[in-house]
Amino acid sequence: MAPNSDDVGKDVAALKISDEPEKPRADSAAAASTAPEKGDPNISANHMGGDMWVVKPVPGAGYGAVALRKIARGERIMADKPLFVVPTTVNDVKTMSQIIALGLKKASKDQAREFLTLDNAHKANGPLVGTASTNVHPMGGGGATEAGLFLAACRINHACVPNAQNKWRKDLGRMTVHAARDIAAGEEITLTYLPALFPWAERQTILKKHFGFLCACATCSLPAGEKRDASDKRRKDINELDEKLGDGKRIVKHAEAMLHDAWRKLRLLQEEGITDAWVSRAYHDAFQIAIANGDQARAKVFAERDYEATVACEGKDSPEAAQTMDWVKYPKGHPLYSGKLQWKQGVDKIPKDLSAEEFEKWLFKLPPEGLAK
Ligand SMILES: C[S@@+](CC[C@H](N)C(=O)[O-])C[C@H]1O[C@@H](n2cnc3c(N)ncnc32)[C@H](O)[C@@H]1O
């Protein structure tokens, strides 16, 4: 964020993907090598971690949240209430400072003091706005109009292939964080601060500008050359496929090509090690393609996979998961369903005796020889 930016509100919440789009971070091996220990009692997040995680110093990144035991994919790591909320539409530092000061007045003295000990990557904007810009999370997906300061969630450091997913749960009034894959005891819990899958050079520029650090996560530590280029290309391809899959005009005319795009996107996510909300989004795309073409059998399978991925990242109690379960039970209920279209078939047509490989070929309408990636 530029010093004294006239677009403070936007900048405060511009980054950190929350509700949409690892390998251990390079330094999480170091975290793993130290025996789990009690965190700093002055860090309020430590009252929330129980036997699951603790906030403690991590090499090269200040404090971070570190798993005290294995955390299985889908386990809820935290459900954090905001200390204060700021609008993302306020455009000047002075007004934003006043809003934060008011918010802090309502907090306990210890919490207000703790807020002022957090990282500030924008010192030119003063302690309140600078610290908030470095630590708030948007409350909702792209275009969120509010951002919150969550004293536990803000301790989670960034990785470009994170092992956890955050989600603003309006229904609970809390920011939840779930394990997006199994996290080993001693491993650091990570989220992505980035709203899209940028290539390496762009990631470094954005993270330095908005959060004041150069990323050395496992993905960023890939050696320059073949491996880094391959990761950059995967990210570029995923973004392009994501855009193509969002083009509703292709959904009937180019249905099969779109289903193949969904397959490619899922393969690339897997190769990149991405297990967070990108996966449910890809299965949701595939579900929409199937149901918009009248295929309830494939739609049901895609909805089941979307449900599994949504529950893992948001919890069983998430309203989105409940909505997805409705499509699992009754795919025809989706507004895009038309019984007249080219792929019309009922849920009874889900094949039962195929090998896993053959089932995937059936599901994504792949040719017998498979698809070029
Ligand atoms: C939201 S805070 C995260 C918690 C913070 N490390 C702390 O000590 O409270 C964001 C700040 O943490 C640090 N940080 C987060 N992820 C990092 C990473 N992958 N490598 C180095 N520093 C990181 C940066 O200083 C960043 O401005």
Automatic annotation (TrEMBL):
Question: What CDD domains does this protein map onto?
Answer: SET_SMYD (cd20071)
Annotated region (Disordered) at 1-43
Q: Which residue range or ranges hold the SET domain?
A: 51-194
Task: Give start-end positions of Basic and acidic residues composition bias.
Answer: 17-26
> Mind telling me which SMART domains this protein's record contains?
SET
- Which InterPro entries does the record cross-reference, listed alphabetically? SET_dom (IPR001214), SET_dom_sf (IPR046341), SET_domain_protein (IPR053185), TPR-like_helical_dom_sf (IPR011990)
Q: What is this protein called?
A: SET domain-containing protein
In its UniProt entry, the species of origin is given as Apiospora aurea
